[in-house]
Amino acid sequence: MTCDTTSGPDVALRRRPARTRLTWLLVVLTALLLAMTASVAFGSRIVGWADITAALGGIHDTLDQAAVVKRLPRTVLAALVGAALALSGAVMQGVTRNPLADPGILGVNMGAMLAIAVAMATVGMHTATMYIWVAIAGAAVSALFVYAVGSLGRGGATPLKIALAGAATSAALASLVVAVVLPRGDIAENFQSWQIGGVGGATWDSIGQVLPFLLAGLAVCLLCARALNSLALGDELAAGLGERVALVRGIAAAGAVVLCGAATAVAGPIAFVGLIVPHLCRLLVGLDHRWLLPFATLAGAVLLTAADVAGRVVNRPDEIEAGIITALIGAPFFIYVVRRQKVREL
């Protein structure tokens, strides 16, 4: 059984006119094109349009053209990781009906980080594929643990309990990461640069190794869009509509964990993208996951690409990692979401 078998009543979803959605789709696609162009053009040196087109055409004779070639994989990876994290956050919010759900806030990123730290310190890893598998396993274990702890007690897995469980788990796992890495000077330097979160070390090889995982997670999450609409109506009503609630939750959550784990493996634990983007997209296209998930994917690519560009521009010729930029944006947004009284549950 796939997740795309049962549809909840459309009247239960806040909808937007098709013209409005198509207009915003054009806006987001334009923003993504502009962000990716800026990512290629701006950095320690500014590259003109003539050099960009020449480099894309295969001419690499000047320093500016060489800079374009070097920035291309970084631009592509930023878009892929941003899309993966935003889609993962949107699906996690839909599965848990928790407006605070985000791979970083729920401890999923930190679980992937701890798994990589332990593997580096014990068995050693030499390929991006090994990093990805280990990160996905760590993310899955952390997600299951947080959901289990948040489900304890009266009322089950409420949004507040899951958020608190995620925050506590993140803090505990962060301490374990320090305990694992600190005594190992041989891995500490590389690990510390990775754990900040950024796409500066992107290569076409690493993109090629992570791309199958991202595509698999993307397919699973998008196939679950219609079923997530049913879950938004409540478990009892969703079951009454013929939805296998536990199975749908498990499949959708698995897709989100694969996306988060793979993105964390290649870019480090970048937080708040999965929190900010889904909320903004709901304002634009409504609650229908068949529209929300694709929009969140595109908007996440825009956000992380723009954050990476900002990190290169504001402190030239040095850089500020994209994970720091998203944290500066996301922390105030998180406080805003927490203080809103109408978003205790989706």
TrEMBL record:
Subcellular location field: Cell membrane
GO cellular component: plasma membrane
Residues annotated as transmembrane: 22-40, 75-92, 104-123, 130-150, 162-182, 210-231, 251-280, 292-314, 320-338
InterPro entries in the cross-refs: ABC_BtuC-like (IPR037294), ABC_transptr_permease_BtuC (IPR000522)
Pfam families per UniProt: FecCD
Lineage: superkingdom: Bacteria
Topology relative to the membrane: Multi-pass membrane protein
This protein's UniProt keywords: Cell membrane, Membrane, Transmembrane, Transmembrane helix, Transport
A GO MF label: transmembrane transporter activity
Main localization of the protein described in the UniProt heading: membrane
GO biological process terms, semicolon-separated: siderophore-iron import into cell
PANTHER family from the UniProt entry: FE(3+) DICITRATE TRANSPORT SYSTEM PERMEASE PROTEIN FECC-RELATED (PTHR30472:SF1), FERRIC ENTEROBACTIN TRANSPORT SYSTEM PERMEASE PROTEIN (PTHR30472)
Family, similarity comment: Belongs to the binding-protein-dependent transport system permease family. FecCD subfamily.
Full protein name: Iron complex transport system permease protein
Species assigned in the record: Micromonospora yangpuensis
Lineage per the UniProt record: Bacteria, Bacillati, Actinomycetota, Actinomycetes, Micromonosporales
